[in-house]
Write a structure and sequence with these properties.
- The chain has 114 residues and is an alpha+beta fold.
- The chain has a single domain (2-113), classed as Ribosomal Protein L22, Chain A, CATH 3.90.470.
- The protein has helices spanning 10-19, 23-27, 37-53, 81-90; strands at 2-9, 65-69, 75-79, 94-102, 105-113.
- A hairpin with a 2-residue loop joins β4 and β5.
- Pfam families: ACPS.
Length: 114
Amino acid sequence: MGIGVDVVDLARFTAALERTPGLLERLFTEAERGRPPRSLAARFAAKEAVAKALGGPPGLSHREAEVRTGEHGRPELHVSGRAAQVAAELGVRRWHLSLSHDGGVAVAYVIAEG
């Protein structure tokens, strides 16, 4: 149904979090907070990639896409709110997510499968 990718510069992302304390609460669910900046950057990239996979519909909130740690440490994507509504309208039945961080960047790939 859709694919999305996003890359985040770790230094810029970390500086933004330090400069704007409320950003953490605005972008991440309670369960996601408390992770190191490189993990948060990868999760932010995943949230952006979800929006791209859904076609960039208006009204999405970053907290509507949550990255959870599944069995064996594998990242799992859970959507709610407007993101879940748009996904259902498109016929998305399953999400695939890959996260990585290295060399000063974090990257996320998201596939919305119908």
